[in-house]
Amino acid sequence: MVTTDDPVRLVLNQGLLTTLSVLLLINIAAIVAFAQDPAYLLIVLCDLSALLLAVWLTRRGTTYGAILFTLVAIGSSAAALEPQSFLVDSAPVPMILLFPVIVATLFITPRTGIWAAMLQLIGAAIALYLKGAPTSALLTILPRMAIDLGAFTAFLVVGASIFVRKIRSEIAANAALQELNATLEQQVAARTQELAASNAQLAEANTQLAAIMQRRSHELRATAHDLNSGLTVVRSAVDMLVLDTEEAGLDCERIAEAREGVERGFNSATALVNNLFTAALLESDKLELKRQDTDLAALAEGVVQQYAALAQLNECRLHFHRPAGPIQLTIDAQRIERVLANLLGNAIKYTHKTVDDTGREGVIALAVERASDGVALSITDNGIGMTAHDLERIGQSFTRLSTAQGTDGTGLGIYTSKGVVAAHGGTIIFASDGPGCGSTVTVWLPQNMAGA
């Protein structure tokens, strides 16, 4: 069981375990091959025991297994030396002496290779001396062996040091990257949790808002219905009162004037009720259109005739530019008529008999014409005009513009008009060069609603 957390040590120990496994197989094969040689068999069994102990120590995650393996390799390589192989001048260092240095350098630490080389020299000297090598030969062999083994060890230690340093730097970089990734994952998880909580709060707020809007829409419809019922009763009572006064022979002219005033009041109240009801339907997305083939030019002319008296009362001139021939569209005629009435009524309200000190006469014009795959109805006046800020805000429910201060109204007429036109697939565009420069509103309805 590996118990170290050092990633480099894990890699080195894994490589050492692979090497030891190969040597264990070789030793097992040697036991089978030399089972008849007791002396050699004893040596192999000792090596096998040492290798098994090294495997156990290595799996514990320590360097003790590599140290034991290095010492066993030093002893085995020294015991395998023969003095006769060194009697030849310039004889190279046997490769078997290099093996312990390689093991120590690669599997323990690079600097341990120096100590392994020194122990290898000492072990080789002892083994050669015990095998009867002359002292003069030892004095010749050992310096040459030290130089060759030292050069090889130095090259191996430097290379291994560079390799291990690079590996450790890469591991450190990977660890830092993993730590950064873990931090980012934690931050993402925290932000995700916060976002989920915010979404839940937003969903709850939307649900509450939808309930409030639905309740408001219901209350608006109920209020509009009650007002309309009350107006109907009052209108009937006024009509009966007028008939009774006429039958009684009272001043008919004064009665007619009073009746016109009452009629205008009723019309304004009725328009407000209709706008309230339409606004409630728009907010609850329950507006239904009753489409029918309609001559839009004739409908617009009828609205102009309805408001001619109001324009005359405000001492404004009202013009209608009728197109050549009818313009048929499949629309909800009653709602489009209400739209034109709202827009024309606003134009009359904000265009006075004298626009400025020069005595310029107030003029309002309504034109109907075909335009860009549809029909355009434009209402132009030379009244009080609008600011750029007003043009951005116009059409919001219950919104009063800065240029409309001092006049009555709720701001619902434009809001409901835009909603009705949008339901037909059309648009309403307002334009003005500024306060005192008049205004133009253009209603565009698409041609795909045209009748056959």
UniProtKB/TrEMBL annotation:
Question: Would the keyword Chaperone be found if you checked this record's keyword annotation?
Answer: no
InterPro entries in UniProt:
BphY/WalK/GraS-like, HATPase_C_sf, HATPase_dom, His_kinase_dom, HisK_dim/P_dom, HisK_dim/P_sf, Sig_transdc_His_kin-like_C
User: Transmembrane stretches, by residue range?
Assistant: 12-32, 39-57, 63-81, 86-108, 114-133, 145-164
Gene3D superfamilies associated with the record: 1.10.287.130, Histidine kinase-like ATPase, C-terminal domain
Give the keywords, sorted.
ATP-binding, Coiled coil, Kinase, Membrane, Nucleotide-binding, Phosphoprotein, Transferase, Transmembrane, Transmembrane helix, Two-component regulatory system
Q: Report domain Histidine kinase positions.
A: 222-449
- Reaction(s) catalyzed by this protein? ATP + protein L-histidine = ADP + protein N-phospho-L-histidine
Instruction: Spell out the Pfam families in the cross-references.
Output: HATPase_c
Enzyme Commission number, as recorded: 2.7.13.3
Q: Which GO terms describe its biological process?
A: osmosensory signaling via phosphorelay pathway
A GO molecular function annotation here is: protein kinase activator activity
Task: Fetch the SUPFAM superfamilies from UniProt.
Answer: ATPase domain of HSP90 chaperone/DNA topoisomerase II/histidine kinase, Homodimeric domain of signal transducing histidine kinase
Q: Which residues form a coiled coil?
A: 167-215
State the top-level EC class: transferase
Its name, as the record gives it, is: histidine kinase
